[in-house]
Design a protein that fits this description.
Length: about 300
């Protein structure tokens, strides 16, 4: 049975029910098959998505824009430097005005509160395309990738190794909602945010999943079906890059670490990868890696999101 998500904001996976998350994943899988079979998918004919970017992007920008096009709609790129926001127009007024022209807004920015404020004042759905705190659309594509490769979500174990960042936070919500056990290994001082951890633990309790947080990558990957990593210095942390590389070096996903997980484990990375830092070429291009299918699935999962909320 489908759950109506029309008009819903997609800001944090914590705000979505398990049914809603599974619906996006399953619809994404179906839309992928149908697209490959050459079927027309004009579900959003005449609709426009505005895409506000304060940070750079390859995958998010292109997949949302192409996704709207494939759904018969249109996407409008709004670089934050070109908007009156830059000269001090408030987020509330921007939200009210954009709601008169558009049918949905996707935003990628630094402060998470800017996205929740935008959603509060917009009368159209707001989709979080990454903040310093969360990256929900990435994790919906990741869940689609995992289900496609493993045939299930519930009961698997995912090991996240590296920085306890926005991607790690959204993974904590996503896995705990759908019943995937998550083991996290970060250097001391780089653990995930405590408020997020508390909320994710509540979600895990409801689904029967577990979240373990520690500082040993080999403990985390033991028995893992999926190994996941992300950059050691996220957008906005460029000045800390050298320091982070030094601290995180023992957390590199390399052949030795992959060997310590299950034989048939998958390697996922949201990309962009910093080859030679958080992951070696051998792993990124090796037999366990599904990173480019994962990148492709951004398109399919987001088409499902757009079709459901718009
Ligand atoms: N994974 C991801 O969000 O990629 P971009 O930064 O290229 O959008
Ligand atoms: N953690 C990374 C993800 C990039 C898609 C960042 O925020 O830069």
């Amino acid at each position: 049975m489908s759950v109506s998500m029309k008009g819903k904001d997609i800001i944090s996976l914590h705000d979505l029910s398990r049914e809603e998350i599974e619906q996006i994943v399953d619809l994404g899988a179906m839309m992928k098959l149908r697209r490959k079979a050459g079927e027309e998918q004009q579900l959003l004919k005449g609709k426009t998505l505005g895409m506000i970017f304060t940070k750079t992007s390859t995958r998010t920008r292109v997949s949302f824009e192409v996704g709207m096009e494939q759904l018969g709609g249109h996407a409008l790129y709004l670089g934050a430097n070109d908007l009156q926001l830059k000269l001090g127009e408030t987020i509330a007024d921007t939200a009210r005005v954009l709601s008169r022209y558009l049918d949905g807004i996707m935003i990628r920015t630094f402060a998470h509160k800017d996205v929740t404020d935008l959603a509060e004042y917009a009368s159209i759905p707001v989709i979080n395309g990454l903040t310093d705190l969360l990256h929900p659309c990435q994790i919906l594509a990741d869940l689609l990738t995992i289900k496609e490769k493993k045939g299930q979500l519930d009961g698997l174990k995912l090991a996240y190794v590296g920085d306890g960042n926005n991607v790690c936070h959204s993974l904590m919500f996503g896995t705990s909602k759908v019943g995937i056990d998550m083991a996290i290994a970060t250097p001391e001082g780089y653990e995930p945010n405590q408020d997020i951890t508390k909320l994710a633990n509540e979600d895990a309790k409801a689904s029967g999943a577990t979240i373990e947080i520690g500082n040993d990558p080999f403990v985390a990957v033991d028995g893992a079906d999926i190994i996941y990593t992300d950059t050691w210095a996220s957008m906005g942390q460029e000045a800390e890059h050298a320091k982070r590389v030094k601290v995180m070096k023992p957390f590199q996903v390399n052949a030795k670490l992959v060997k310590a997980a299950k034989k048939d484990c998958l390697f996922l990375h949201c990309l962009p990868a910093h080859r030679g830092e958080e992951v070696t070429d051998e792993v990124a291009d090796g037999p366990h890696s599904v990173i480019f299918d994962e990148a492709e699935n951004r398109l399919h999962a987001q088409k499902a999101i757009l079709a459901l909320v718009m």
